[in-house]
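does this look right to u?? fe (ii) ion version
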Amino acid sequence: MNIGLFGGQFDPFHNGHESIIRGALKSGIIDAVIVIPSARNPFKTGSQVSAAPYRFYMTKNAVEQDFEGENVFVSDVEFMYSGTSYTVTTIKQITKPSYIRTFLGSCGIKQKQAHQNHKYYWLTGSDVLPKFDQWYESEKILEQAGLLVASRPGDGVDVDEQIARLRKLFGPSADIKSFRTEQVAAASSDIRAGHDLSEVPESVKEFIATHALYSDEDPLMSVSQKTAEDYYENAIKLYRYLGPKRLLHTLNVGILSARYALRYDTSLCDRALIAGQLHDCAKELDESLQKEMAYRYSGELFTEKKLLHSPAGALFAQEEFGITDPDILDAITYHTTGRGNMSLLEKIVYLADKLEPSRTYADLEKERQTAFTDLDEALRMVAASMKRKFESRGQEMHPLSLDFMSDLGL
Ligand SMILES: [Fe+2]
Ligand SMILES: [Fe+2]
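got this back:
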């Protein structure tokens, strides 16, 4: 097969991307497109991007919905190796026979076809042509793949002239082809900044709403560079341990915790982001492992199945994510039960866990609003409904939760 590889940040994935994919398939030059959301962007843009799993799942949802039955797939290959995601590295990884055969097989491509020797094209907009020779190891890119360039009306690039220039530079064997596609007025940065969602697919609109992406107050702008980098790395690592729903939940808790910190104590912003992001990191580990870890971390304090992931999570945050800050570890440990005398950070993570935007277990509008005006009152509202739930089921609360309730006057 001839396969187009379409890499990008996709923050968000929009109609311009879809138009490039459609045009590329229509050109007849390629038979399939693999969309590859970037994990680690080599270029610092000065603005923060959404963590990689958000961009990956948003893109995957859109592709599955809008290209159903067509040969368009989304790959997580950039999550699988460490270090900066340069194009040359991504092409090298994705074109490995062991990877591509399994990947295409998992996408429903028949074995005979998946095992062919494929030809690859890096799919891109024409705007990159004038700078392509400055890309990291551009010569090696062209040894591994051709370039397939989307030429859009009014894009201001003389595609033929640029292709001739690059052929002169890289030799006549450089396989650079172009195709015409329609111009779609969509730029990710404008969509993020302006909240104009007219050029994003329906599923992306839903995804942005569900996870409250691109909110005006982006806490990632308020944390240190080091914390932001840790946050992005942790998000990529969490992808290995959590399914999509829980992974996006735990990332949402990180962002919401940081937003609460910005409201109540900005000095907690960095710790709130990381504690929230990691609070459920151990929840999908094997139960026996959770049990063993919980015991190792806190002895007999937590033995109930539902509670194991909290102390196990603190230990996992320590051992797998390198967290040493005791306040972060406590916020993870007590996020399910609460406890007496909770620190502000613990309260923040506890509340964010219950109120993050993708939570739909009840109408939480009032609690969500109150959380930004009176944190303790919001805690009381959330804890009271928790208490009612226990009472209606005739269940006993953990002694730590009883201390927590009594602190709140419940
Ligand atoms: Fe949890
Ligand atoms: Fe949670």
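The two ends are 65 Å apart (CA to CA). idk if thats expected tbh
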